[in-house]
Write a structure and sequence with these properties.
With 178 residues, the chain is an alpha/beta fold. It has six helices and seven strands; from the N terminus they run ααβββαβαβαββα. It is elongated.
């Protein structure tokens, strides 16, 4: 290999490494950009969502008691698998002042059809595609589903979980608020 070939190869490597470094820096900066609202949690409590039956649901109505907020979709297998677990948690703990809310990142028709086949007792509301941005602003850095947030009675975030819930997750969160 000649000296000129080694120099060109070194330049190519340097260019590739420089581009990769710059891309990584740009990606990190993009993920650190401040959300549209300076306080996404405060913004959440001001939101209203339509339920599959067309009724409106105000987030403000959930303040004052612990809340498990679950972002889900009918097309997401882990989301669908964890709904019965959330349903059991809700039924066992509603008398202990716990609340559960499912925000569907989905189409209202698809959610209505799904709930007709697999009803749940806790409230479900439609976040639609904008729910992805909302979940990101609340800590879901990947925008994936399912994504769950636990709020205390004052509306402060206590826990976040990306991915399917387990009974241990729910039991631990509940223990932390006793």
């Amino acid at each position: 290999m000649t000296q000129g070939m080694r120099s060109r190869r070194a330049l190519v490597y340097a260019a590739v490494l420089g581009t990769a470094g710059l891309s990584g820096w740009a990606w990190r900066r993009w993920r650190e950009v401040a959300p549209d609202h300076p306080d996404p949690e405060a913004s959440l409590w001001q939101q209203q969502f339509v339920q599959p039956d067309g009724q409106m649901l105000a987030m403000a109505d959930f303040k004052g008691r612990p809340l498990v907020l679950n972002f889900w979709a009918t097309w997401c297998p882990p989301c669908v698998q964890e709904l019965p677990l959330l349903g059991r948690f809700y039924e066992q703990n509603v008398s202990k002042r716990w609340q559960v809310l499912g925000l569907a990142i989905d189409d209202q028709g698809a959610v209505s059809r799904f709930l007709a086949r697999s009803p749940v007792k806790f409230p479900i509301a439609m976040a639609g595609f904008p729910g992805v941005s909302m979940s990101r602003s609340l800590g879901n850095l990947t925008g994936g589903l399912p994504f769950t947030i636990v709020f205390d009675a004052s509306g402060r975030v206590l826990h976040r979980k990306m991915g399917a819930l387990t009974e241990d997750d729910l039991a631990g969160w509940q223990q932390g608020l006793r």
